[in-house]
Amino acid sequence: MALKIPIELYNQLRQHGEATYPHECCGALVGEFDEAGEKTVKAAVQCGNTRTDSLANRYHISPSELVRIQREALLAGQDIVGFYHSHPDHPARWSATDLAEAHWTGCSYLITCVEKGRAVLTNSFLLLDQEDAKNFEDEPLEIVVD
Amino acid sequence: MSIKVLIPTPLRPYAGKQSVIEVSAQTVGEALSDLVTKYPDLRKHLFSEDGKLRSFVNVYLNDEDIRYLSKDTTPVKETDTITTVPSVAGGR
Prior knowledge:
Chain A is of the alpha/beta class.
C-alpha cells in the first residue's frame, strides 16, 4: 500500500528541509487511515527540532507539540499518520538511530536527502511490528496531483 | 470519576481500535491502571517489566507532562484529558 500525499504537501516538507539546511528539519503528517489501512496525508505540520545540541544529524519533536497536534487532528476527525525529517548531505534512508527512536508502528516515516541545500530524494518507510521486534519497510509514495 | 485517555495510533490495535477511552480514576496512575485493566494487551506497550512507564512513553495531563507534575499521583478532574504519546526522534 502506498502513502498518498498531495504534491503541495510533498513539496512543502521537502522545502522545509531546504530551509533548515544544514540542519535536520522535522514535522508531523496528519491525515486519514481508510478501512484497509491505507494512509492519505492532509497536512504536513512543521515542528521544532529540540536537538539543538546536534541539529546537523539529530532531531526530536517535543512531546508537547505532539500532544497538541494529536488533539487537533482528532477534533478534525483526522489522525497522525506519520512524520518527516531530513538528512543533510546524507541518503534518504533510515539509520540505526532512526529505527531505535521510532515508536509509532503503523505510521510512515518520510526522509528527504537534502544535498548542498537542495532536496533531492524523498523516501517513505512504514514502521512495522511490535516494540521488541520492529523494522522499517520501504513504502511507496503516491504523489497526488489534482 | 470518569476521564478520557487519548490513545495514539500505534497503541490502538491493543485498545479495541479506539482513539479515546474512558476510565475511572482519581489520579493519573489510577487512570493508566484502569486503562491496562480494561485492555491488558496495552500493558507491555506502556510499562516495562518493573512496572514503570517505558522511557519513550510520554503522558500528558491536558497540556502538562506528568513528569513535571506529581507523576502517578497527579490528581485528575472530570474535565481533564490524559494523552499518551510515544517519542518521535532520530537522525542520520
